[in-house]
Amino acid sequence: MSRQKLHLKAPDNWVNDPNGFIYYKGQYHMFYQYFPYGPRWGTMHWGHAVSEDLVNWEHKGIALFPTKREDQNGCFSGSAVEEDGKMYIVYTGIRYEGSNPEDIHVHQEHRFEATQMMMISQDGQTFDNWADKQVIIPPVTDGRIGHRMHTRDPKIWKGQDAWYMILGSTLHEKQGTALFYRSEDLHSWEYVNRALKPSLPGWMWECPDYFETEGGKVLLLSVMGIVENGGRREEHAVCFEVDFQEEGCRMDIPDDYQFLDYGMDLYAPQTTLDEDGRRVMMAWLRMPEKTDAGWIGMFSSPRVVSVRNGHIYFQMHPNIRQAYSRKIADVSEASPEGYMACFDLQEEETVDLGGFLIYRKGNRICTDRRKVFAAVNGGYYAQSARLTSQTPEIIGEARLEILVDENMVEVYVNDGEYVITNAVYHLGRYITSGEPKSIQLYAPEEG
Q: By CB neighbour count within 10 A (0-12 exposed, 13-18 middle, 19+ buried), where does 237 fall?
């Protein structure tokens, strides 16, 4: 299968949410939502890629695909854990109640049901889609708890005395909510509680991820309808420092939240622990249209999540920083995997990275991709694409580390205090600066 370096991209056609992110038996496994028949969204399968270092990736093909009544129209997002040497995968199975006669890969009249399912793999390499699947939580029937169609994306973890699951859901398609379940054996699950935040805009919470990390407890959510932009309510990923008690699955969510990434292109983040115990996150980069190579969708570089003084940091993973070890004098010396640019940005300075502008306005770091972005008149989410972005105010200096790929630019501000990630197209291979400054360039080692 195909091999990729530094940024995991679609092997072909279409990818979206990362799934089942896990360090298992000496390898990182990243599954992902995959439509293998064209560069568009459709009946979801799970693609599968592995890496030994989070830098070099190998696509392994399709791991999950529809075989049961409950998942006949798609294997939606989920997560993975290890128990007794086996890989347990949980995901949402989708069954349409009305198929589109002109396109069997999409539902008709918004009628479907969601079931939580599990597959067990003995080795994380082989997946029996006919024999090794089971239903663990049937569709929600009590509208006071959640929603029959819109309950999905299970994330599971091992607590002090049992296994726990968080699911994204909605109350009456008006208020997002998270549901908590508990299990002694990973097979039988009992509903325990739910979390609400009525003051948070958004009608649906997708792809929830709860974890403890250095400095605090964190909740990630992808909220549908959280921000209004040009008359349309958009979907974006946010994060909170929360308090969670396993007894009774009680979660206290504060009023304040951060965006996961201030480029507003990343969605559906998922985390795992790396081999050294760090909490690591990757997320899907939403792209409005396919690349020249014919694929659409890729993933951010892995980021280490921590909490300092009530602020959630997303630092570049040290393996990624170490991979950019070859110092170069000019972008023309970079390999096809791209390059890293490092510099301090002073107020009112602008740096042009091949048409992608980065500048500082007061104490905010801003980007402008209007020269290197596809036409905003089609595609899966093009109507909500933002051409300019900015961080909240920073305190003190602005030290930037920027990863530049032909279809993605990631701007790390002050070692992950904030990050701006943007999809780009036809990026030029040059750097110009409005003011003289020391820009250090690094590329991956060749070979």
A: buried
